[in-house]
Amino acid sequence: MESILSFVGGLILIICVLVSVAFLTLLERKVLGYIQIRKGPSKVGFVGIPQPFCDAIKLFTKEQTYPSVSNYISYYFSPVFSLFLSLLGWMCMPMFVKLFSFNMGGLFFLCCTSLGVYTVMMAGWSSNSNYALLGGLRAVAQTISYEVSMALVFLSFVFLISGFNLLDFYYFQVYIWFLFTLFPMSLVWFCICLAETNRTPFDFAEGESELVSGFNVEYSSGGFALIFLAEYTSILFMSMLFVVIFMGCDLFSIFFYVKLTFVSFMFIWARGTLPRFRYDKLMYLAWKCFLPFSLNYLLFFIGFKLLIVFLLLWNC
Questions:
Q1: Transmembrane region positions (predicted)?
Q2: Which residue range(s) make up the domain with 55?
């Protein structure tokens, strides 16, 4: 009975996430439209609300083409695996009903994000196109570079809350959010999230000006739609994680979803405002700025916890 409940709960969660992705794409097109002083989608239905579903139907009903020289099996399955990993990450969402709130949720999240690199690399390599391969290599180098800082920042919080369970962030932020006490760290985490999800200004994997859409250049119809879904699922997940870590995580409050929508809007806002980085500056930012910053904070938190333990032992 418990396994059936978990399965049904997971299914509902996946359906909700996919519907959220549909409306996130609509929000992005609307916001980018208004940033560029034009209307977004407005013709289909009432103010263009059914537009994402029309796009999904169009993409999945188009003919699936593939390059004759591609490595077909890995070319075909990498978008599927990419979406699977993006959805699998949602299983560590800190739910109070003990459906998927396992104690090592933070570790599970790091594993899922690390595996996401392989799908991009596989998609770029198996297309057997120079542009796709270059896009894939860029994405892998970028993701691995920023993952180091992300893991260290997350490890700082592991020392702070003394555990990997994401539910603990709720208990530590009942009175004050970490956003106020650790504001510099929240900015760094947000930049790392942008880099991890290959979003502007870190979208070198899809640099249209030099790589013709990057690693997904050979994908069409269903394959392209799955890559698109995986990217936006990751954006939503990273937004959710940002809210959980820095802005309290009471999932039964409507305010939580308002905060999640605002953080997702910030992803779109960054895309509409910022130009693309230069690649060497991107790597410089990862290794010369974010890495020392995250290491310093990690050492600070370790020292802070050791001081607390020492004071407790002294009092005893």
A1: 6-27, 72-96, 102-123, 144-164, 170-195, 224-248, 254-274, 295-314
A2: 1-315
